[in-house]
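Entry 14. Ran structure prediction on the chain below.
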Amino acid sequence: MSVVIILGASQDCHALHMLQACHKAGVEAALFDTSQYPSCHGISWNPVLAQGGLRLNSTLYRFEQIHSVFWSSVGPPGLEDTTNPSLYQIAMSDSSSALRTFFDESSIHWINSWQVFDSHKVKPRQLHKAATIGAKIPQTYIGNESEDLLAFAKQFKKLLFKPVYGGAHATLVDKNQLSLLHLQKVLKYAPVTIQEYIQGTNIRTYVIGSHVYSAEIVSDEVDFRMQSNPVHIPTPTPPQIAILAKRLTKSFNMHWTAIDWRRDHRGNYYFLEANPSPMFIHFEQLTGYPITEMLIQSLTQSSHLCDVG
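Output, structure tokens:
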């Protein structure tokens, strides 16, 4: 028996979509909601034999039976309400360590791995790595030194503010936000990402193994995610951008990703981010691209290595 595990909460629409797609394709699959571990699910590990198992409710899957894992979302362990408060942090740390033991299983084909997600949290380094691979990136300042930020800002007429870690929309920088007194106050709380604004349009490129799919996302908003229904226009991926997208995917150790670009009026593509667990259902519906089908193929392939070129 070989099984595909879908990592995601019971309310995660993308996890449920992939679970249903696996079943429709005749692939045995099960949902692992980490917020229900260890209260409902179990993990076991023998370090001498290097053997382990994952129990989802009453069904046990030995690690060697798990062919692949699709990582949609992972929440913190969910401890019983009766957990002794004085032992709560120990229980949480122990549960997280056991989860990591499962996440570290190298015999499983991870789409994508926890190492990829951990690396994605450090977006400043991802930007630099993309640049070393050959991608154009917008001029960017990251930090909380007010004078350095002001020196950078003086070079550009239009700037974007972004969180360093992510989790919030990009917004235009107002000139009032660039006063020294204001910056000295707010930068004590957190660093920021300030980036030159690239005039142009949004392009999203999905890479799944050797397959590349792109669409223009038309929006009047600075961040297209702020618009309820932006127009998606399937667009051919220029050959050199398709090659670059696959190189980026491979360099980031991803088996699939969605790359956000800004395409200027001259046709130059500027790399913004590569997401290891992008939303795709709405994109697939609007473009007709076979994202789900390609993901199922990747999850069920015999080799654990995607051909990303």
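The longest helix spans residues 88-103. Will compare against last week's run tomorrow.
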